[in-house]
Amino acid sequence: MIDPLPFEPHRFRTAAEHYLAGRPPYSARLIARVAQLCGVGAADRVLDLGCGPGQLGRAFAPGVAEVVGIDPEPEMLRIARGMSAGLTNVEWREGSSYDLSPALGPFRLVCIGRAFHWMDRVDTLRRLDSLIVPGGAVALFSDSQPKVPDNAWRAAYREVLDRYAEGEPGRAHWRSPDWVRHEAILLDSPFCRLEHIEIIERHEVTADTLVARALSMSSTSPSRLGERTGQMVAELRAALPPGVAEGGTLREVVATGALLAWRAEGAGAAAS
User: Containing domain of residue 112, as a range?
Assistant: First the structure.
């Protein structure tokens, strides 16, 4: 297995403001299904690790006792705090997976949204073993766009993104033949009992949404592209079907999913 990428706490500094506007939201049905399968209830605590602007933490908060969100980027946390006004059971902390310790726990569920690949995955799961209660789970959230007719426009959009993202270290890292999928890492961890669930929905998206999505990615963020940012934005808009750049919308089919991982049957939490 290749080594994890060097830790860069401010990788998403300039991407943060575009994240909520651009990234597909996690389905409310997915959140409800994860809570049901993981037995998450009103007396439980949830950790949103690599929380970004806090979509997952805020989604779970109404049904649990407490949510703790952790992220290394202050700008992400600023947005998370601003979006969680009125939620009295949510705490946002600056930190990373390297700051996990038994003092944070216990938690029934640790959710990680689009962030596990940035972490030292083996070390993170080892640390989580001392935080998650017996019967508790890790949930890795993700999104993808199935190859269906509604998503045909994505080929031209993706070509522009790939061209501007070329040479970004993370992409080369994950596309390496030595990269090991999350499932394999989990199967060799204490959390080796796996289940994957997915919700597929159709949305309407605008050109502004898709531009924000590109700018929310570390590989095509304003801080990485610098003076080329405006050129990429213009090319993205030009790549979309006629009329979309002038205020029209596109259909997009999005699959939001969660890879759930529990300890083996009968296994308990690691001693702290």
Answer: 16-262
